[in-house]
Every structure is written in C-alpha cells, then in structure tokens.
Amino acid sequence: MKVLWLFAHPDQRSLSGALKDEGLRALDAQGHQHRVSDLYAMKWNPVVDAADYGHDPAGRLLIGAASERAYTDGHLAPEIRAEQDKLDWADTLIVQFPLWWYGMPAILKGWFDRVFVKGFAFGLTDPATGRPQRYGDGRLTGKRAMVITTAGARAATLGPRGVNGDLNDLLFPLQHGTLWYTGMSVVPPLLIPGADRTTPTAYATAASRLRERLRTLPTTEPLPFRHQNSSDYDDELLLHPDLARLPPPRTGPAVHYTAPPPPVHG
Question: What global pTM score does this model have?
Fold first, then answer.
C-alpha cells in the first residue's frame, strides 16, 4: 500500500499520537510506504479564503466555480496542491482523529474543505451518460479509506443502543458524504474507546487491534454503501421505496447501505 496518514490531534504525547506512531511502524514492518499530514504540526489553516484560488477579493466568491477554475488553471494555493499531490500518490487514506462533539476537529474539517475542491474530488460527469460521478464513482475511485477515532466514551455507548448513538451513524457524513461521495471505498472504522482512561494493558490491546487492522486493510470488505449510479435510485436520486422496506426495515442513513454495516467494536 501507499498510505497517506491524515492526523489531527494537538498533542503528540496523547493516545492518538502514540497510536499514529504505532501505525506508521506497523506499515514500515509490513513493507508499505507512507506519507503523513499532521495537521496541527503543520499549522494547517482550515479556513477557505479567496486567496486559496487567486481570486479577486472585490468580486463575489463562488466557491465551486472559483476552486474548479483555480484547480484547472494551476492557481490553487501551494499548500492545497501539496496535499492533493499526496492524495494522488496514495492508494489508501487513513483519517485519524479524536471524536469531539460528535465529529472531527475543525482543523480536519477544514482540510477537506480546502483540499477536496471541485474538479479534483468532485464535479465530474460520466462522458457516456452525462450523469454526475459521485457516491461510489469519481476521480478518487480505486482508493481505500479507513477512519481511526478515539473517544472518551465506552464502546457500548457508541453502539446501536448507546446513548451517544451508533458510531457508523456519527461518521456517516465523513464516511458516506465525503469519502464515498468522491469514489473511495470505505472500510469499517476502528474505534479506540475510553481514551481518557487508558491503562498500559488497554493500550497494548488498542495497538494490537490497530496493527491487525492495518495488516488486513487491503483485503477488508468495505462498507456496503449503495452506488448512486445504480438502479437503487430513481432519476431524482431518491432511493426506491421498496429497498428501504427490505428486512430488517431501515430508516435514516441505514437505507443507503445494501446490507446492515458490521457492528463497531471497541
């Protein structure tokens, strides 16, 4: 594998930092290549700005059009181009972050906002059909992605009956709405729970689970998201109602899987 490890935690001495180092050592031992984008260490600017696109600040900033034009013309800010080059090089993306307020840290959201511009990550059409290439199709098709997240909560509370909600639902905007949207196959996430109460024994278990997930990453079955350009959706991109009623009956994000996703273990 050629792995881009996208990391967002402000403290290198944290559990997240230790697991990142553990993961990179495992990739080395397994003979894989890797590059790292450590956003806090890079002092990554998460804020979209007209300067990203060489845009005249006196005019209206239409993000989609401006970003696509800058990407096509080679006028994107150098730090954005550098991250896109890393992603082009990689066949696998690891996204690692602590789960803060039911989502990723703002600095990581800002990486996607600035790097996944129109023309690079989305906005393409199938020349044969004219249909948009997204949700399973697109420029990033063929790449794999995996989310690694630490949480202070216990694993059971991030399950189907947990008070915090099911982790696959919490990660749906990232896993489905960002990674799958751009064409990447997304394997089940790795949850490291109880981050604020880690013991040496718990850390050893987490490190072992991480090494195993990296070892099997190339062959792990991805989450069974539905392809937009399949017969599952009508011309208005609405899921055919009979598919939502398949056993077990599902609502919300779950209807956009062809089968229930595997449970998340901590």
Answer: 0.92
